[in-house]
Amino acid sequence: MTDWPGHSPTTSSALLSLMLRARRGNTEFSRAQRVLFTVCEFRAAAMHGALRRYLGSTAAAQLEIAEACYRALGLTGTAAVLRRNRVRLLKRPSAELLTAAIADLETSLARLREPVDETIARFAGELTLEWNDAPSGQSLGV
């Protein structure tokens, strides 16, 4: 576990907006909105030492989704760490390997010198501006 302060206010605000829309029954989200939610959920799990619970029994599939989302944001260092551990799991899937891969993943992500939180916040801010500029009821196809 790290001393991660959590998502930025911009990111938290964008996530809250998405969650409120979902709660109201809106299930149509753009690719960009799904990417934001996925990277935020994964980031929080990784930084709070909760990846094992987050990944569940479909760890390799979940890592593949997260990898694609981080790559979409240009966070290639994070994507590479996810890929390395996903490939490890695919080669020899076992409970022991999963535990080792998750420990390595959490440590590697905490040490990564990539501006992950800043990039996510910038992306969230851009999405929020687009939501505010879109005509009411229009789905953003970002």
How would you characterize this protein structure?
The protein is mostly helical and 142 residues long. It has one domain (9-19, 27-127). Helices cover 72% and strands 0% of the residues. The chain is built from seven helices and no strands. The protein has helices at 9-23, 31-47, 51-55, 59-72, 76-91, 95-111, 116-133. The radius of gyration is 16 Å and the shape is globular.
Largest sheet: none
As for the number of domains, it is 1
Element pattern in H and E? HHHHHHH
The overall pLDDT, averaged over residues, is: 88
Note the overall shape. globular
- Which regions contain 5 or more consecutive residues with pLDDT less than 50? 135-142
SS summary, helix count: 7
Q: How much of the residues is beta strand, in percent?
A: under 5%
- Radius of gyration based on Cα positions: 16 Å
How far is it from the N-terminal to the C-terminal residue, by CA? 33 Å
- The computed structural class is mainly alpha
Total strands: the figure is: 0
Helical content stands at over 70%
